[in-house]
Design a protein that fits this description.
Length: 556
């Protein structure tokens, strides 16, 4: 009953925090409109691929004709599978908003279940769950990173570890199988979060082994059997996705981000624009903020309750998360220094090179939730004076983490062309060149238009990673025509009144390279200039319909 009540509370608070994005129209989402475009596309892609007998791990519906390896892109395939009924009934934008609510609230609820293992009062476990659900990490990620705000795996891993290593109440094959299935589902949700969980499981397990070294010989056989079954189950379920990831077509190499998101020592102490007290700070984005009061409380609880295994494991895990979040070199205000840090060893390993260090703090907030919950337990069991003092200390420590609410919402510009059936007249062979052209079109993404249309066409554009110079590139090919379209959109350039023969031949060759059979010029600042360019290039004006300008039959 208390678990059900906690779930209702987590869902209700998530809905209340997101209400502008949930109830402001069918084209409005929770968060911003940049990164979510690809996640919205992914929610539509999976049911479409399965219903059309296509490989859901590879696609040529974006970046046509070479396509993209979706295991190298944050394609949230497992959540898309779970939400297929919602997507089919209400469309991918509604499905994305449902995912935001479920991702945030279920993450908090799973944290409640994990913390409940170590707390005597359900109230303290609820507080722990809400610390995780509304942590700075979660509030930052909910604005656009679906593969991270569905953060149920870390607390579930705590539950599995507690059962396999400590309690050992269930058969090894059963709990091991469940762990293997859960890890495989996480692989199809977020390889980054799976890698983060694996990295920070190491110091937690080492600390646990040191604390319970006298019981190791007795408990190790059961744990080894369970872990062996988990690895075998994971290997079977994840074999093909891992094959596509490691050896499949269009796989990329090198770091996907050209810059590292690392924490500075002050990042843990100074609130960002996502906190309610952000008026004291100019920091725009920090998913590692803890605050001085909470750090003091966590340190005091650790010293006082150092004989509690749960507290010590949580404290060591928190310390490691904070240390690794600093990146490979210590970064001060002016930039990175030459002082190396432990992450420098891990960042050169496969997969981990694409983990952004600040994101390791998702585990740190879970560890903080355990520490605070255990302290609340102690306070509730004390005399009235100490109870009031303890709860007051918790309030002082947690108030700085209160997020600035409601969570922002974003609005997509969706031309009627993609919803009234006109899109079905586009060529069903080859690709459709859609503008605005590029990867930085926050509210007019071709991925969203393609998803809204029910995957009615293929396109050469799309914010996906694919092989390129140095191992990878993001977005469509910036060939001469692509550069021209980008300039017309962003730089307010004028389209040429007449194209020279050489330029015309180059642009036509670019169209042939992507087998372009239709062109759709979408709404943007430079729409008229782009339309003027295509009128000159294709020899006739396009049809203006449903908020776009269309050339249906293109023969480059």
């Amino acid at each position: 009953a208390t678990a059900a009540l906690a779930l209702v509370l987590c869902v209700a608070l998530a809905v209340a925090a997101m209400w502008p994005g949930l109830f402001s129209g069918h084209d409005t989402i929770v968060g911003n409109t940049g990164d979510p475009s690809f996640f919205i596309w992914s929610l539509q892609w999976l049911p479409f691929a399965l219903s059309h007998h296509l490989n859901p791990l590879l696609t040529d519906y974006l970046h046509y004709p070479s396509g993209a390896n979706l295991m190298w892109n944050t394609s949230i395939l497992f959540p898309a599978l779970v939400l297929t009924p919602v997507t089919d009934l209400f469309g991918p934008i509604v499905s994305y908003n449902v995912l935001a609510v479920l991702g945030m609230s279920l993450s908090g609820w799973c944290a409640y279940l994990a913390v409940r293992r170590y707390s005597q009062h359900w109230v303290s476990a609820v507080v722990g769950g809400l610390i995780y659900e509304f942590s700075p990490f979660m509030v930052v990620q909910i604005t656009g990173h679906a593969h991270l705000f569905v953060a149920v795996f870390p607390p579930l891993l705590v539950l599995f570890a507690d059962e396999i290593l400590v309690r050992q109440r269930h058969r090894a094959w059963l709990i091991g199988s469940l762990l293997g299935v859960t890890a495989a589902c996480e692989l199809m949700t977020s390889t980054e979060l799976l890698a983060i969980s694996a990295v920070l499981a190491v110091p937690a397990l080492v600390t646990l082994a040191v604390i319970f070294q006298a019981q190791l010989r007795e408990r190790l056989p059961h744990a080894v059997r369970a872990v062996g079954v988990a690895l075998a189950t994971f290997a079977v379920l994840a074999a093909y996705p891992l094959y596509i990831f490691l050896f499949g077509p269009q796989r990329v190499s090198g770091a996907l981000e050209g810059f590292g998101f690392v924490a500075r020592p002050t990042s843990f102490l100074v609130p960002s624009s996502f906190e309610l007290i952000s008026g004291l700070s100019s920091v725009q984005d920090s998913s590692v903020y803890v605050g001085v009061p909470l750090l003091i409380l966590a340190a005091a609880v650790t010293l006082q309750m150092r004989r509690r295994a749960a507290v010590m494991v949580a404290a060591v895990t928190l310390a490691c998360a904070m240390l690794l979040a600093l990146g490979g070199h210590l970064t001060i205000h002016g930039g990175p220094t030459s002082i190396p840090l432990p992450w420098i060893i891990l960042e050169h390993l496969p997969v981990l090179g694409n983990v952004l260090p600040v994101r390791l703090m998702v585990i740190g907030y879970l560890a903080l939730a355990v520490i605070v919950a255990v302290f609340i337990d102690q306070a509730l069991s004390a005399t009235l004076r100490w109870r009031v003092a303890g709860l007051a200390a918790v309030a002082v420590a947690l108030v700085p983490l209160v997020p600035s609410l409601p969570i922002p919402s974003g609005h997509y510009v969706i031309p009627a062309f993609f919803t009234d059936g006109s899109v079905r007249q586009l060529s069903q062979t080859g690709s459709v060149l859609v503008t605005p052209y590029g990867t930085d079109v926050p509210d007019q993404g071709p991925e969203v238009w393609e998803a809204i249309s029910g995957m009615a066409f293929r396109t050469q554009v799309g914010a996906v990673y694919s092989p390129g110079p140095g191992g990878q590139k993001s977005g469509p090919d910036m060939d001469p025509l692509g550069i021209e379209l980008h300039n017309l959109r962003d730089l307010d350039q004028q389209a040429p009144a007449e194209l020279s023969a050489s330029v015309r031949d180059t642009y036509m060759a670019n169209l042939r390279a992507h087998d372009v059979r239709s062109v759709v010029v979408g709404p943007s600042v430079g729409q008229e200039q782009v339309a003027r360019l295509f009128t000159e290039l294709l020899g006739s004006p396009g049809l203006r319909t449903g908020g776009v300008i269309v050339w249906y039959d293109v023969h480059p």
